[in-house]
Amino acid sequence: MTEAALTPVQAQALAQGIKGNRQAVAAVYDEIAARVGRDLPDFKTVALGRHGSREAFEAALMSTGSGAVPWHRVLLTELAAQGLIDLPEEAAGAAAAVSILPENANGSRVDVAEFSAMMSPALRTADLMYAFSLAARRVCLITIEDGPSKTQGTGFLVGPQTVLTNHHVVESLIDPETGKARDGSAAKMSCKFETLTETMGKSYLVVEDWLIDFSPVDPHPDPARVPPPDKKHLDFCAIRLQGAPGRERGWYDLSVTGSVDAETDAFFVVQHPHGVPQRAAISKNTIPENEGKDFLRHNAWTSPGSSGGLCLDNRFRPIAMHQGAQNDGLAGAAPSPNRKRAIRLASIREAAKDIVRPEPKYDKITVLSDESAAVIGRDATQSTLRFMADGGGTYILVIRGQKQSGKSFSSLLLRDSIPGDQRIIISFAAADLPADARDLARMILRQAGMPEADITRALAAQARMTTSAASVADVFAILKRALLDIAAAGTTEGKLLWLLIDDLDRVNLPQIGSRTLLDHIYSDTELSSIMRIVLIGLTDTLLNVNAGTIATEDLPVPDKVEPREIEECVGRLLTDCGKVTSAEAASLQARIIVGATEELKKWSPDKSPLSLMSGFVAGVYRKAIK
User: In 3-state terms, what secondary structure has residue 208?
Assistant: First the structure.
């Protein structure tokens, strides 16, 4: 039977409940229109001339509800599923005659005022697949092998190097007297991640000082007892892994956590029960424990090995970490399989805010992100760049070295060492720098992302040639204010501007104009809060700059590569490919690479051994070990 068309009054009432912005609603509408075909025009057409969002939504509803097929029901269902509509009580009466969802199993119609709540348990397949694909890369199986005994649990990435799990999973590796990791414990633990394309997964070892922070399990759990804030037993442990797998796999942001409605929302636990490949359990009726903020009660299926599992809310946001089955607080009572407990991630973050911060000395790149070259050596450069990014006190890095020593390669290290959402790189070759300070300011602001019209407006008051000290100072004041504004508008807290100038050992900058402007930039203490500087090849002494803020690195000669650096690169590559190797095997592999490089040198005598080796390792060798 054909459903009656929407009336203008009904469309107006429904439009009042749409709380999504115009762009979001248009995307939902156009997706439906694309499926329908010619019978339904696109959103831009039906909303043409309607400047107000409410009027545009009414027109869209009338368009979907005026044909023989009730497409408005599909539109409203999709809006409800994405949380973009919620009818107020006063609008429900006017829209009461509209059938929003299909009939219930008993044949009754769903009341229009309740359809948002009815739709909240319905999950978009695309969102579900995306959330599980992220979990497949970020959730890991933790294995502890201590002699004949073997313990397994679950963990997940919350930072570039940090895996979060329960304290009771790794408790045997922590000295209860000192609160430190036991000697030799690093060799007993590994974290294995799955991927959608590699069935065997990928294992990472932990660093020697792997224990970042922890809160012990409560030895006397009592659901009725609320411990004081300084005595909480949150049963978590933050573990630092070798390398930085989070840079490749991503991680869950503990500052953005979800929520759950006990009656309607689904609650997911992604886990490795009994050490098997990932499982995802789902349940409802998840509630706060005794109305507290630290723990949740849930009844999702779990088993030994699930401890430390990732808990997601109905919108697939991280909300908690599974802890285990709990008893009812009675002495000697066995854990109940239907009373599971999870620890809120917001409480863990509040108790340990710095667990996600990477340690620069362990955060090393082995191959560039474009896979064009391997990074052999250069650990000092990477550590210094990350030290600078973390506000360690170094503001300027000067890199020197012979021709083909890899000085210019430093710009690629900067690009890959600091995540893209945490930096804006402004890069020049010394030969490209103009003599005029005004022109240089324009070039800097352009690379920093400032619109051309805004740059012209900001510099309009300046004379064309700015070479005098007074005029350069005026240009610097404009440039400084603009850079501070750009940094403040960054989407990521702590986003830095990086100024990199290459080939300073090959080009002498004129001692006027732009050179004077650069001296202002180098010495300004306020800019140091939002800017870092890398000067490649600089041999001059920087004037009026605090020597304590400058780091200098002299690169070794490129003709000889230290065997140790090759072995370290090989070891990291093998680890990245999920292979564990011995020092002897890494040494043998390094000798093979050296031999191959010597043969390549015969064909390319103009290239340095370092350059040839880097390309060979990134290409031929890396593909071979994979």
Answer: strand
